[in-house]
Write a structure and sequence with these properties.
With about 230 residues, the protein is mainly alpha-helical. It has helices at about 10-15, 20-25, 40, 45-70, 95-110, 120-130, 135-155, 160-175, 180-195, 205-210, and strands at about 5, 25-30, 35, 230.
Length: about 230
């Protein structure tokens, strides 16, 4: 979806939030003077769609971390009920839940067949690099999921939070846990691609213009850069 806007359009002069996409990602056609940008990822009028995606993905991460943190469910259908195994952290058996998950993953690598559900190299990694440190990594997993969920839900550093969410999803997949991980990976990839506007209805609306980007610097000051004759979002 491409939208052509004449110079002087309010969308071109709008809040400094939009300047991120204008200053950092515009590719200009030298012959036609047209800037080509996919509206899906750059136009703030599409931000409502990413808000819906954020609410779903953020909820899933917070619910996943909440039962590890408290031992109780936030999932629809089992809300408020105690989860089997109880809390993963701040208990006398911290690390036991993660160790059980890892041992189950390692066992899947030894199943018969050419393509086991867990690859041998990843099972080796789990057994010798993760399993000995489950008492510490349990806290990393629990609070990592919580921070990712809060970042996506509140729209704070949305693209970064989505990236670390994908990192955890991929590791869960490699460990043999499919569940909704593929769905979250796809949605999080789109959140990363739309990082300029995915947090527009959230903290990023104010945070990104203040911090700017490494290649543009902060965007809190007005710029006198000339406007293009046409632009697309």
């Amino acid at each position: 979806m491409l939208v052509l806007l004449p110079a002087g359009s309010p969308l071109l002069k709008g809040e400094r939030y939009e300047q991120i996409s204008q200053n950092s990602t515009a590719s200009r056609d030298a012959y036609s003077g047209v800037t080509i940008q996919p509206a899906f990822f750059f136009d703030t009028r599409m931000a409502w769609l990413w808000l819906i995606v954020r609410l779903y993905v953020g909820y899933q991460w917070i619910a996943a971390s909440w039962w590890k943190l408290t031992g109780y469910s936030l999932y629809i259908g089992s809300f408020g009920r105690p989860m089997r195994g109880g809390s993963w952290v701040f208990s006398t058996h911290s690390g036991a839940g993660l160790a059980l998950f890892i041992n189950h993953s390692i066992a899947q690598a030894h199943t018969t067949g050419m393509f086991p559900q867990v690859q041998g190299w990843y099972a080796f990694f789990l057994q010798y690099a993760i399993l000995p440190f489950t008492s510490v990594l349990t806290y990393v997993v629990t609070f990592g999921e919580l921070l990712v969920g809060l970042g996506i839900l509140l729209g704070a550093f949305t693209g970064i939070a989505a990236f670390f969410g994908i990192f955890m999803n991929v590791n869960y997949l490699l460990a043999g846990s499919v569940s909704i991980n593929p769905i979250l990976i796809v949605l999080s990839v789109f959140l990363m691609l739309a990082w300029r506007i995915s947090g527009f209805y959230g903290i990023d609306r104010y945070l990104l213009p203040f911090l700017g980007t490494p290649w543009t610097g902060p965007l809190t000051a007005d710029t006198d850069a000339p406007e293009a004759e046409y632009s697309t979002f």
